[in-house]
Amino acid sequence: MQTKSDILLNARTAVGGALAVLLVDDDPDCRMLIRDAIEGSGMDCQPFEVSNGLEAMEFLERRGKWSNAPRPGLIFLDVEMPGMGGQDTLKAIRAIPELDDTPIVMMTGVSDEQQMRQAAEHGANSYTLKPASGAQFLETVRASANYWLKIHQYPHHRIPQALCKR
User: Fold this and answer.
1) Which CATH superfamily is domain 4-163 in?
2) How many CB atoms lie within 10 A of CB 82?
3) Quick check: 131 and 141 in contact, CB under 8 A?
4) Any one Gene Ontology biological process term (predicted)?
5) b or e along 16-46 (b: 16 or more beta carbons within 10 Å of the residue's beta carbon)?
6) Which of 54, 75, 73, 53 is nearest to 141 (CA)?
7) pTM of the model
8) Given this model, what pLDDT does residue 9 score?
9) Do 107 and 79 contact (CB within 8 A), yes or no?
10) Ranges of each domain in the chain
């Protein structure tokens, strides 16, 4: 019988082998822009959307309607949300050992040095400001997704040694 840990570790992909990307934002327009940027990037990704931190934890812990949710390969997390905010959600995610290598990109419309420090202390991989322009916002998401899903290397997700130049 598989443990919860085994299930989380082995469930990196969504339907059809696409990498799951979790979008956590209370603003449906921001989720739409992030989703559009990911879907338009040419990367084999499947976005999943939740509107707050509690829903994110249900998804990540596979509770309720998310009982069959895949383990995300990337999480975009809004900082300012009602209820369980981004910082508390970040701390809760980082408390799950199986998700310690999942990149988390904090996104916010407010440039706040204290929030940035807290995000770094709580284990965020990136802290990104949401640009006011829709086009700039799309490009920011594309660049971030490209880095975390294609460029950054993990022990379990890396370019084979044979393809590396020496």
Assistant:
1) Response regulator (3.40.50.2300)
2) 9
3) no
4) phosphorelay signal transduction system
5) eeebbbbbbbbeeebbebbbbbbeebebebb
6) 75
7) 0.83
8) 39
9) yes
10) 4-163
Provide the token pair at 103: 């990149």
Give the tokens for residue 85: 């905010």
Spatial separation of the C-alpha atoms in residues 150 and 121, rounded to whole Å: 25
The pLDDT, as a whole number, for residue 155 is 55
Query: What's the rounded Cα separation, in Å, for the pair 160 and 166?
Result: 13
pLDDT of 163 reads 56
Q: 139 near 121, Cβ under 8 Å?
A: no
- DSSP three-state, residue 70: coil
Q: Which long-range contacts (CB under 8 A, 24 or more apart) does 14-17 make?
A: 14/46, 14/48, 14/70, 15/46, 16/46, 17/44
Place of tokens 């509107």: 51
Structure tokens that stand for 15 in this block: 């339907």
φ/ψ (deg, to 5) at 157: -145, 90
Instruction: Give residue for tokens 């202390």.
Output: 121
Q: Which two tokens stand for residue 112?
A: 């706040």
The segments of the chain whose pLDDT lies below 70 read: 1-16, 153-166
Matching residue, tokens 């739409």: 32
